[in-house]
């Protein structure tokens, strides 16, 4: 295993810390969970209240998260365990770990808290559902004529755990070189602001954007079928929409430019629903999926805890396995490394099961001569073929940590997310340089263009591969394979390269070549199934999977580089989007498998309308688990107060609550301001804007993540090809004449 022998002490409770330690366990770490006398409360938790129904005193979620770990009770041996640890994970109220003398003892200490250290609200212990209100997520989900909708499944906690694991292993890389202990401070609020909403502060302020608060449901979305099921259909790009029109036999609408945009379909929602649902209701779900697949429209039958393990692609790839010592179904690890086998799993520990085991001796750790500066990946070069969101999000972390990331596009097919700008082509011919999401996800990268469809372009790509440490791509497998750039070919060019591939469904299996977006994964893995109004259809979170996959992928690359440092070996890292998403919805499958309970939609519980509500958008989120008042009584109580007044009173009574914040307004959050979450960056086309950073603060830096804006199309092509491959001005002119390289797109997507 990559981190075989890494000693981790997990002092946290709950999902975020548990998922962090799970990912480190999957990567080979030896995790000792130090629990309070009554154990982690997650042992007694079940979303359906079914703990014990399968004859086991521990809930399935606890057992899933803590497979292959050890359990001891917190006692006088804690100091010795911390001193012997390489990584310590904790989730106490900020300041408590420092007071206990835990921080700064092990090489890496990871602190997870709702709002992070520093700032006026650091000690507020808000729950994930309440943080959805403060992050802006609540204001973006649901229908405008109904209450705002909380995303189900506690996804914010899972992704916070993934960020924490990424921070831990990035800090470990540096700490082992400098010999200096590091503290990684992780904020759940910031993690959710980055993933449950789509760059809202930038989208509102970039050219064409507007500071408006509105909720919407993607169209098309989860559509009903003749057999009473739902099929999730995704049309993110204009190409997707036109392909869908072909599938449903409505090519007559291809010239309607308004319907070709997501905003246009939202404005004409009734018409779109009638068109799409009139077609889907003619067929059973499987037939709708096949007809969409024939036109390369991302589509999938809606999944849940019962049906997800039965999808043929996941069966073929053995994605779901039996929990050791229990037998219920749960997903395997989300990483697949070609040079490292999966960890052999052992049962989750009983409370205090390993109390008599000896404490490992504290190790002497010397500083290595190749110590890095404040960017742990300085000296690493990445060739980035990825597009849209998940892949670029992964490589943006590598960029922030000091790697030189060379982003490859083509004039024929630039990164499709460039065309999500709010500016229309007729209003500004450089609209493709004004996409907020592209700008936010590609900061600090070098941008080049190469047409791999021409021999000269493909040859240059091969030559560049020979000069880099990491290659990344996130297309359907047939794309890179068609260029002759499968794993074997890339390895032949540079044997020690790390090759990250992020297909939708995997490099093998019957769905290998099907396209899939984040929304497809949310539809299939149950995220949509548990999100929606009571009695209504499922609703997708709307893109969460993209950055969540990116975080996992960045962690896998950091791990693969660690393996290469130790062994000299490069390897293929395969991370199908659906398998990463399934790892964060494991609870649904486990509850169904162990208890026979199908988890359902959360509804809009815990969200109440407040007074001073002239525009109908004054709401508050209240933690239902901590609120003793009946829902009807709480609704009346909130209706007599402003959101701010209600929140103050509830917090003073120990009940977690927060007013709903419009997603675009998070820029003004005093906690985010105090922690420096947003960083100003000057862009040559759109000017200076405040960009979100990352939800981790490192004691050893960097103090600021972003130094350079996202690249213009082909901005650095000449410099990269000159410096790395020795091309001359004559060579470059010839390539431009053939449109192998250039700076203006030849078409749109």
Which properties best describe this structure?
single chain; 749 residues; alpha/beta; 7-stranded mixed sheet; 28 helices; 34% helix; globular
How would you describe the overall organization of this protein?
The protein is of the alpha/beta class and 749 residues long. Helices cover 34% and strands 13% of the residues. The chain contains 28 helices and 24 strands. It has a seven-stranded mixed beta sheet, with helices on both faces. The protein has a seven-stranded mixed beta sheet with strand order 12-18-17-16-13-14-15, sandwiched between helices. It has a three-stranded antiparallel beta sheet with strand order 7-8-9. α5 (128-135) packs across α8 and α7 (155-178) crosses α8. The radius of gyration is 25 Å and the shape is globular. The chain starts with 6 loop residues before the first strand and ends in a 12-residue tail after the last helix. The mean pLDDT is 94.
The gyration radius over C-alpha positions equals 25 Å
What is the makeup of the main sheet?
7 strands, mixed
Strand content: 5-15%
DSSP strand tally: 24
Number of H/I helices: 28
> Spans with pLDDT under 50 lasting ≥5 residues?
none
Shape: globular
Q: Largest sheet, order of strands side by side?
A: 3-2-1-4-5-6-24
How does the helix and strand content classify structurally? alpha/beta
> Mean pLDDT, rounded to whole units?
94
Percent helix: 25-40%
Terminal CA distance reads 42 Å
Question: In a nutshell, what does this entry contain?
Answer:
The protein has 749 residues and is α/β, with parallel strands linked by helices. The chain is built from 28 helices and 24 strands.
